[in-house]
Design goal:
InterPro entries: AAA+_ATPase, ABC_transporter-like_ATP-bd, ABC_transporter-like_CS, P-loop_NTPase. The protein is of the alpha/beta class. Helices cover 34% and strands 25% of the residues.
Length: 320
């Protein structure tokens, strides 16, 4: 049985669930995108629970950015449908004022200052009118760009450009914020700032979709995850439930070598870790029974919660 199948059996699901009765911020149903003979996204079903922070994970070329572009109406799906904040695919533009997005890196005028670029972006916001300086200055302060606001954009580092793109996404309160690799080029302080902003958005009830390769950051800030590979959704759901389902059973025995052989003979996926047995099928009674039946002395049994990096590696290795 694969890791994904084990998680689904123990409570994970192929489409994310909010754990509440509220309507999701977005629904993707049987979503597919092809470019000639290349399938970028293949039949994805996914909900973004309202108020959740959803980590969208996958190797390079897994379809993450293509999926995000279809969600925002930047790319038309070959098949399937998208619902965004209660709007279907024919009227996504009506939902976009409530959506802030940073996708594939920001694009601004190189010879304007960061502040002037943000003022131009603010002028396009239908929810802003009158004096635009206050919301622009507030957004710049929120992402830590106040001191560099009057410098030309062409002189910005990659991390500063990312910060300015994030500021543009946060000019007005949003119901959904989509961030595609927002920490690209950021130093540790910038990464902490992005983590802080995401926490503030979550506390305010905003739904956040975060695409990232930094699994430790995703584990630190996300409430839900969805894992893509080769355009297909491997697994999704509440992060805490998925990690609990994928945890290990750590068993201390009197003879680790014999214990390992006994468990493998019974079909368990087991290996040695720090002179103890680690068993990925976390069914304690069955594991203990197999060891006792083989005459192995069992001293201690405990559960070890998996880390997101371990879960991601097992899922993507199985799909390779």
């Amino acid at each position: 049985m694969s890791v994904a199948e084990e998680i689904r059996t123990s409570g994970g699901r192929g489409a994310a669930s909010s754990g509440t009765d509220s309507e999701p911020a977005a629904r993707l149903r049987d979503l597919r995108k092809t470019y000639g003979s290349v399938t970028a996204v293949d039949g994805v079903d996914l909900d973004l629970p309202a108020g959740a922070v959803v980590g969208l994970l996958g190797p390079n070329g897994s379809g993450k950015t293509t999926l995000i572009r279809m969600l925002l109406g930047l790319t038309s799906p070959t098949a399937g449908r998208v619902e965004l904040l209660g709007r279907d695919g024919t009227e996504l533009e009506k939902a976009l004022p409530d959506v802030g997005a940073l996708v594939e890196g920001p694009g601004f005028h190189p010879f304007l200052s960061g502040r002037d670029n943000l003022l131009r972006a603010a002028a396009c916001e239908p929810r802003l009118e009158g004096d635009l300086r206050a919301p622009v200055d507030a957004a710049l302060e929120r992402v830590g760009l106040t001191e560099a606001a009057r410098r030309r954009y062409r002189g910005y580092s990659l991390g500063m450009k990312q910060r300015l793109g994030l500021a543009a996404a946060l000019l007005v309160p949003r119901r959904l914020v989509v961030l595609d690799e927002p920490t690209n080029g950021l130093d540790p302080a910038g990464t902490r700032d992005v983590r802080r902003v995401i926490a503030e958005l979550h506390e305010a009830g905003t739904t956040v979709l975060l695409s990232s390769h930094l699994l430790a950051e995703v584990e630190a800030v996300c409430t839900h995850v969805a894992v893509l590979a080769r355009g297909s959704l491997l697994i999704s759901g509440e992060l805490s439930r998925l990690l609990a389902s994928d945890g290990e059973l750590a068993v201390t025995v009197d003879d680790p070598a014999r214990g390992l052989a006994a468990l493998r003979a019974e079909g368990f996926r087991a290996y040695l870790r720090d002179d103890a047995l680690a068993v990925t099928e976390v069914d304690p009674p069955a594991v203990v029974a197999a060891l006792v039946h083989a005459g192995i002395g069992v001293w201690e049994v405990s559960r070890r919660r998996a880390h997101l990096e371990e879960l991601f590696a097992r899922l993507t290795e199985e799909d390779a």
